[in-house]
Every structure is written in C-alpha cells, then in structure tokens.
Predict the 3D structure of the following.
Amino acid sequence: MSLPRSVLRMSAGLLLASVCGCGAGTPRPAGPSPSASAGRTGDGHDAWSYSYVSDEFTYGTNIDDIAVVSTKDAWAALRTSAEPSLLRYDGSAWRPYELPGGIVEAAGGRMERVTLTAGRSGDLWLTASVTPGPGGTGRSFAARFDGADWHVVPLPGGTEGVGSPLALGPADVWSVGSGRTAWHWNGRGWAATALPFEARLVADPTGTDVWAVGTDRKTGAEPPPHEDAPDARQPATARWDGTRWRRVPIPTALTLNGGYDFSSWITSTTVVAPGEVWATGVAGTEPQPIEDGDYYPADQRPFTLHFDGTRWRVPRSDEHPPAAVLSAGKMRDEEGRTHRIGRPPYAPGVTGKVTAADRKQKLWLDEITPVPGTDEVWAAGRVELGAHGYVNFTRAVVVRYRLDG
C-alpha cells in the first residue's frame, strides 16, 4: 500500500534562528533502546518508533519541520538552546548539515519560520522569513536543493511572505502568499493567481490536479459583531484549470446539519488521483458567551466528504478515505476505522535513565508526513516532561510508523 500525499501538516509556529555553522558532525543514532512498554497497542496496531532523539534536554528543543524525499533521504529543522540547525538523514543516521556560505550570505540575516518541502522530483525547497538585524524589515527568502547544489530562488517583489511550497517539479511550484494570492513558479519567474478565498494547496501524486482548500463565511451569516466573537464559516474548495481557480462548491447541508450547524471546516485533504479527492473535517455548534468576552468551546463532530470527479458528496457505506495517521495517538485504516497508536519507548531523562517521573513524558508532533512510495509515515516534534521540577526535559524527536502494522 503506497500512501497518497496529503495536506496534513501539523504546525506549531516554525522557528529557525540560523542554519549555518553546524558542521558535518557525527551521525546520530536512532534513539534510546525500546523499553518493555513499547510494542503493539491493545487493538493490534504498532507504536511509534524513534528515528532520531536529540542530546539536548533544554525546554524549547524541537524538530520544527521535516521533509522526506525517500526512505534514504530526509531533512529536518532542529531547534535547540544553542545554534538551531538543519539535519539530513542518509538512510542510516541523521547528521548535522551546514548550508553553503553562498546561501547563508544571500539570506543576509536571521532566518525564522523556516519550512522544508520535498519536491516530487527529489529536490528540496527551503523558505524562511529573514530579518537583517535589529530594526530591520523582514522579507521572504527561498532556496532550492536539486540533489547536488543549492540555488537561491528569487521571490516576487512586494510580497509580505510566501507559505510552504507545493513542489510538483523543478519548474512547477505553487506557494500561497498573503491574502488571496497563489504564486506559481515556472522555473524562470513567479506569476500571481487570484484565489477565491484564503486557502492552502494540495495536489494528486502526479501533480496534475491542484486544489485550493479553505473556508468562506457561511451562506447567509452576518459578520461577527466584534473581533473576539466566533465567525460562522463553511468549507470552500477550488480547482486549478490551467488558467484560473474555479470553485467546486460544497453544499452547506453536507457539513452543517443535525444541530452542528454554526461553523465547519476541513482539517485534512487527500487528492488520491485526478478527479478523486477525500476531505475530513469537523462541524460545530454555536459557542456560547461566558464573561469578559470569552466563549464556551463549541461541541463538535467529524465529517467526511468525497469528490467523485463531478461533485462533493457524503461517501457510501462501502467507500472510505485512504489510510492515514490522524494525530500522535490515532490512525485510520483502509476500512475507515480508527485505532490507537502506541507511544514510542520512554526516552531517558536528565539522569540518563528512565525514572518513574520520566514515564510521564508526552509526545508532541508538529508535522506528520507520508514517505513517498511506501506505507510509512514519519513525524517530527518532541518528547517532553513538565511540572516535575529539576527533572523536566524536552528532547527533539523524529518518529516513524507503518500503517499496515
């Protein structure tokens, strides 16, 4: 079973202060040895396993982003209390990776909100917001690694920022800018296209069917009375026809019904093949005000939609979205059933051993991404122990999971 690419990216504010000066370094082992607590969960599904565990224990240590080109080539943005850096995986170990001096010089300042994106042709895109220094004005920066060399990619003038690219080929790259603008790179320059709503982009495995996924104000809903009030939204999709973005309507009744009719949005979209798309999301009731401008959380329920080449609809009972990892603790199989994913082995804490306190550590994931051409999923983030005084720690991790067990 080979996994389709999905827009599922779990982000928690990517930050990379600098990506230079980290040196070649020593290969990093896969991580701590499994403990007796690791293995299969109660429903027969495997647990996460470590690919990388940092030696740094300081609060804030994290793998902020990961890009997987193949099972033998992956990249990660590591944040620690020292100089944040890039890591590269060569099929056997994670090694510190130093950007060439020309790329660092071209960036010309402190890199923040770095994203790493693997292209379908095996290349890697790096984007960041760069601040030249105190009082400087931030600007966007992009570079591409073609497998051998790095190249600075000029960005369109006047842009406040570009998002993580959707790289379909060396000369076919999409990136969402500020507001309702999607930029397309043809290998020589960028062209602006107008989105009908603010969106993220996703494509099928061949890169021929590109979609924009976002939300609109719910049909007939009034704008919220003030900025802190909840806004009634509904899912919105559009498809690139080679010339412009054409809306593909999602009828309100498909997601807003049965009392869960205040607001709904899509959380994950998978384009399985041209003309076949799956979307999952949640619909909620209207949040009720408390005091001081706060609101009670809305009750929510999930929904699943299927685009069959003609329209969005509720899937039949014998139709199911592709298998996927949904969160750090949950996966969906090919029959649409959800199962618990076991946590990875306990990582040793500040004592170098797994103590009773260390067994209360939690796994936090910032990104979950499928490995192209396989049924494997990699994820990045941290294991963390808090509220235990001097034994508290945070260690950056990359974990792996195989959907077929």
Q: What stands out?
A: The chain has one domain: 49-402. The helical segments are 101-107, 252-255. Residues 101-107 form the longest helix (7 residues). Residues 376 and 402 are 4 Å apart (CA to CA).
